[in-house]
Amino acid sequence: MEHITLGKFSEQHINFLLQEASAFPGINLRTDFLSQQFLGIPYRESTLIGDRNRAEVFVINFEGVDCFTLLDYIEALRVSTSFSAFKENLVKVRYQSGEIAFNKRNHFFADWKEFNSALMDDVTEAIAEGNTVTITKNLNEKDDGSHFLPGVQCREREIAYIPSSVIDESISAQLRTGDYVGIYSERKGLDVSHVGIVIRKKEGIFIRHASRVYGKVVDEDFNKYIGDTPGIVVLRPGEF
Questions:
Q1: Is domain 2-104 in CATH 1.10.3670.10, yes or no?
Q2: Among 92, 209, 233, 235, fewest CB within 10 Å belongs to which?
Q3: Residue 240, pLDDT score
Q4: In what order do the strands lie in the sheet with 54-61?
């Protein structure tokens, strides 16, 4: 079962954009171009349909995105050359082993590292050059032992992040357009609290993300945005 809402787009338009994106040399320009198309798209929570009590529905909703569905769409788009290929790749990006089920959905940023390792690498420690902090967490488990997501298995993960206090020009200089950044969460059972895409411009470094504050997908100054956060995790997509 699927639910597809393309908003301002059409399948023909998406095919055209994907063909145009394929002409860009390298991941950076392709990701920048494709994610630009989502600037201004409204922020909307809970667009995916399914939970432990309801059958999972395969959703594509370009009328509204949250921070994570935005990354889902961009990652699947960047490895596709047609709308039909995008649908197939979105299943692979969003779900473990391509199985459309709530308990197989990649609910956590760390799931991308674990289950989409063929598409991306965790470059957090390489970028930080020994300035990372590593924490072992049992993802999905709250302080009281209950679950953030009932019906989803808890998994122990080592989370390495770069504290915001150590992010200087030398570290920022290693960030690339198209890198996926997670804002580290200090809460037990969560790896990150928010995600976005690094975009480098002449004016500086930006984070492109679905913002609850602004109510839409925007570009914000990267260093200002992360200044009041605990730190970042960085995943870097690879060629396909």
A1: yes
A2: 92
A3: 62
A4: 2-5, 54-61, 49-51
Q: Return d(Cα 219, Cα 226) in angstroms, integer.
A: 13
Q: Is pLDDT above 80 for 53?
A: no
Burial class (CB in 10 A: 0-12, 13-18, 19+), 26: exposed
Cα 147 to Cα 189: distance, rounded to the nearest angstrom: 8
By percentage, how much of the chain surpasses pLDDT 90?
82
Backbone angles phi, psi at 133, to 5 degrees: -115, 135
At 73 the pLDDT is 97
Question: Could you identify the residue written with the tokens 């009590």?
Answer: 53
pLDDT beyond 90 at 32: yes
Q: Are 100 and 56 in contact (CB under 8 A)?
A: yes
Find the mean pLDDT for residues 120-130: 92
Specify the domain boundaries for CATH 2.30.260.10 within the chain.
110-237
The one-character DSSP state at 102 is G
Is the pLDDT at 110 greater than 70, yes or no?
yes
Q: What is d(CA 79, CA 238) in angstroms, rounded to the nearest whole number?
A: 10
Burial pattern 157-193, b for ≥16 Cβ within 10 A else e, equals bebbbbebeebeeebbeebbbbbbbbbbbeeebbbbe
Work out whether the CA dihedral 8, 15, 75, 1 comes out positive or negative: positive
pLDDT value of position 102: 92
What is d(CA 108, CA 72) in angstroms, rounded to the nearest whole number?
A: 12
| pLDDT at residue 162 is higher than 80 | yes
Instruction: Kindly report, as residue ranges, where domains of CATH 1.10.3670.10 are found in the chain.
Output: 2-104
Q: Does domain 110-237 have CATH number 3.30.70.1150?
A: no
Closest CA to 232 of 138, 100, 124, 106: 124
